[in-house]
């Protein structure tokens, strides 16, 4: 049976990580439910220079699902399957995860589909991976991360390693995405492992 993953992309800097992760999951023939915040769409425009005026076209061209299966949901689509604990999803990754989204999840706000789906993952004991991309961090943000970690979420900061001697920006991005895939138990060859 094909594994099912949920990917959330928020308005924190580092949208390329969420795009690369989604593409990798689709490339490996997984089913992906994608949720993008309004701020996430703005970051696509600012950081990736995408024309986001036609979101349907973006979904077709930037997230090709030639091998996997992609389902896009808006933040207000509470009828989406991932909003329910009865839906069988394997894991969720929010990448990049803004501090506002992290706070909403830590406090059970469920104010939109992204927060609701993260809440479902926690209550169902499913894997929830949060990839914060913020620096420096204040005490509130650290407390929210600690709280979520204690509840079972995995915190995977977007902190690239350099022991594999990255030569390009892609190498740096692939390292961080590879660490997410490791957390999801998804095989990959995005970076050279220590000792290889």
Task: Give the helices and strands, then pairings.
Elements: E1 4-9, H1 15-27, E2 31-36, H2 38-48, H3 55-62, E3 69-73, E4 91-97, H4 99-106, H5 113-123, E5 127-132, H6 139-150, E6 154-155, H7 169-183
* Spans of at least 5 consecutive residues with low confidence: none
Q: What name does the CATH topology carry? A: Rossmann fold
Helical residue percent band: 25-40%
User: Tell me about the biggest sheet?
Assistant: 6 strands, parallel
Strand content: 15-25%
Provide the spatial order of strands within the biggest beta sheet.
3-2-1-4-5-6
CA distance, first residue to last residue: 32 Å
H-E string: EHEHHEEHHEHEH
Tally of helical runs: 7
**Silhouette:** globular
CATH superfamily: Flavin prenyltransferase-like
CATH class category label: Alpha Beta
Task: Count up the domains.
Answer: 1
At CATH level 2, the architecture is: 3-Layer(aba) Sandwich
Number of strands: 6
Q: Name the structural class.
A: alpha/beta
Radius of gyration computed on alpha carbons? 16 Å
Q: Provide the residue-averaged pLDDT.
A: 96
């Amino acid at each position: 049976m094909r594994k099912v993953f949920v990917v959330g992309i928020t308005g924190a800097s580092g949208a390329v990580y969420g795009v690369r992760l989604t593409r990798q999951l689709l490339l490996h023939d997984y089913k992906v439910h994608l949720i993008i915040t309004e701020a996430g769409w703005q970051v696509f425009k600012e950081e990736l220079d995408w024309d986001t005026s036609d979101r349907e076209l973006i979904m077709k061209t930037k997230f090709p699902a030639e091998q996997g299966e992609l389902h896009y949901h808006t933040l207000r689509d509470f009828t989406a399957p991932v909003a329910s604990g009865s839906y069988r999803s394997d894991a969720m990754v929010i990448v990049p995860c803004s501090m506002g989204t992290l706070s909403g999840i830590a406090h059970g706000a469920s104010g939109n589909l992204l927060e609701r789906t993260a809440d479902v993952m926690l209550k169902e004991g499913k894997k929830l991976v949060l990839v914060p991309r913020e620096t420096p961090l204040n005490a509130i943000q650290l407390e929210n991360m600690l709280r979520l970690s204690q509840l079972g979420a995995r915190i995977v900061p977007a902190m690239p390693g350099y022991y594999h001697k990255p030569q390009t920006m892609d190498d740096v991005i692939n390292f961080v995405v590879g660490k997410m895939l490791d957390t999801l138990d998804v095989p990959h060859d995005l970076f050279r492992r220590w000792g290889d």
